[in-house]
Amino acid sequence: MPISVDEVRHIANLARLRLTPAEERRYAEQLSAVLDYAARLKELDTEHIPPTSSVLPFDAPLRADDPRPCPPRTRILSNAPDQEDGMFRVPPVLD
Amino acid sequence: MSSLTDLTLSEAAAALRQGEASSVELTQACLERIESHDGAVHAFLAQTPDLALEQAKAADKKLAEWRKKKTGDLPIVHGVPLAIKDVLCLEGIPTTCGSLILEGFRPPYTATSVRRVMDNGAVVLGKTNTDEFAMGSSTENSAYGPTHNPWDLTRVPGGSSGGSAAAVAAKMAFAALGTDTGGSVRQPASFCGVTGIKTSYGRVSRYGLIAYGSSLDTVGALASSAEDLLPIYEIIAGHDPLDSTSIREDAPAIVLGDTPLKNLRIGVPTEYFIEGLETDVEQAVLSAVAELEHQGAEIHKVSLPHTDLALPVYYIIAPAEASANLARYDAIRFGPRHASDDLWEQYLETRGSLFGAEVKRRIMLGSYALSTGYYDAYYGQAQKVRTLIKTDFEAAFQDVDLIACPVAPTTAFKIGEHGDDPLSMYLEDVFTLPANLAGIPGIAFPVGFDLNSLPIGMQLLGPHLSEGLLFRVCHAYQQLTDWHQESPEL
């Protein structure tokens, strides 16, 4: 088992996911099975193989950094679970 | 005419031009069909009858003007009702990705692919069911319940574009948009007996497609035949400045015509005929290949030696990209919130309770593969092996024009059959993942039935941007056979 329940808790915290104890046990088991399966990748000698991060033969283009029209604030805020004075409202992050 | 929904897309387009049917009539016929059968099939997450009828009326008005003059181009999809996979944004219409974390979300803008079909006069019937965030091979991972396969309601339609495939198979829509990150257009097309195109990476804009695995995600479509699928593809293909990975050129026009199969070199990869491939599927695919050979194609055995590594590569890279993409669901800008006085607590509780089991599994897997100490061993290594998979195809396409192989090792499986065993479900994708990793296009279409009368699909894969060849060869096969004309009794 490459992944312990403690590691699952650590990763869940990194990924901001609250898991139940039953989920922690199940994910430890299931992620270990998938990672065991993926272990066969390590057997390959890839020292001289370049990685593929995109299949396209060009780099992402940059547009000119000019102001452009964007949707009205009310439309962007219309999906917000909480808002105040035309802004997204969140719990305090500083004491 | 028995029923308007029995028409193919091409027949419907002809009926509209000749004044034998109006777009409103076609739309009402589709809405009635949905009303009668979607309780059992559950292809749709949201229906948009008001929007559809408004679009249909506008289409009829234009058609009436066109019929007076008979000049100028009228797109084939003009006035034709379509369905849209619920991972593509349509402004103001609920878009959930099959997830509770987007319940009630109404996008402030429209995806380019959706915009283009609407600009060409197509009518939008609604949003179709999907595995949550397109993560799955059965549509069982939808938070809103599974879609049922119209050929056998106890079975899955495949996934993740299962709602789109089922809607087309059940004749609720003349065609549908779908997306394919690891097989999500081709495998449901295969399971539901319809034709589906997985486009080359970069050929169709991803703007407004809610991201899953950004280096793998592609927008495609499903319809009853290559002939019906082509007009949708031609509309959505081509450059879009709003997607930085969009190829900066127009897509060339494709003419189906009479494609001579003579001297066409078709490769059959030995690595796709392995243990676990059902006999009926193998036989049907080999018969289809034999039919193409009979028409003059040259059949060659080819080898794609790293095929068996596509699955572990995909299930590192896709979850890694997903873990980054799904970080945006923070309950601040959209989506429901499990409110707390503490922001950290709010993140944990909202994401923990509103993401489904498979999505959490992939976020965890991806976060692990990207985490300190494991990055090189998993993600870095997977990216290198991805190169090997891509070069396998490049080498094969030196010797053959395209590759023919099964879409999936089995036909549609029973709902619940894979239980809570993610690895056994991932193995369903073994034949579709390589094309996504290589960025190449594929077309899936029916080539027979198994002993349970379930459709069997074959896929043709070609070099990057070879959609024209795929459409022409698929069409040539469909001129010779009638598997694509079969439809389920509902």
Describe the structure.
The complex is a heterodimer of chains A (95) and B (490). Chain A is mainly alpha-helical. Helix content of chain A is 35%, strand content 4%. Chain A has helices spanning 5-14, 21-38, 73-77; strands at residues 83-84, 87-88. Chain A has a two-stranded antiparallel ribbon with strand order 1-2. In chain A, helix 1 crosses helix 2. The longest helix of chain A is centred in the N-terminal third of the chain and has 18 residues, at 21-38. The radius of gyration of chain A is 22 Å and the shape is flat. Chain B is α/β, with parallel strands linked by helices and 490 residues long. Chain B contains 15 helices and 11 strands. In chain B, helix 2 packs antiparallel against helix 3 (49-69) and helix 9 (310-325) crosses helix 11. The two termini of chain B are 19 Å apart. Classes of the chains: A mainly alpha (95), B alpha/beta (490). The interface between A and B is large, with 52 and 72 residues.
Detail the topology: elements first, then pairings.
The complex is a heterodimer of chains A (about 100) and B (about 500).
Chain A: H1 5-14, H2 21-38, H3 73-77, E1 83-84, E2 87-88
Chain B: H1 9-18, H2 23-41, E1 44-47, H3 49-69, E2 81-85, H4 112-119, E3 123-128, H5 162-169, E4 175-179, H6 186-192, E5 195-198, E6 219-223, H7 226-236, E7 265-269, H8 279-294, E8 298-302, H9 310-325, H10 343-354, H11 357-370, H12 376-399, E9 402-406, H13 422-426, H14 433-438, E10 442-449, E11 455-461, H15 467-480
Parallel strand pairs in B: 2-3, 2-4, 7-8, 7-9
Antiparallel strand pairs in B: 1-3, 4-6, 5-6, 5-10, 9-11, 10-11
Main interface: chain pair and counts: A-B, 52 and 72 residues
Mean pLDDT of chain B: 96
Instruction: Please give the order of strands in the largest beta sheet of chain B.
Output: 1-3-2-4-6-5-10-11-9-7-8
Shape of chain B: globular
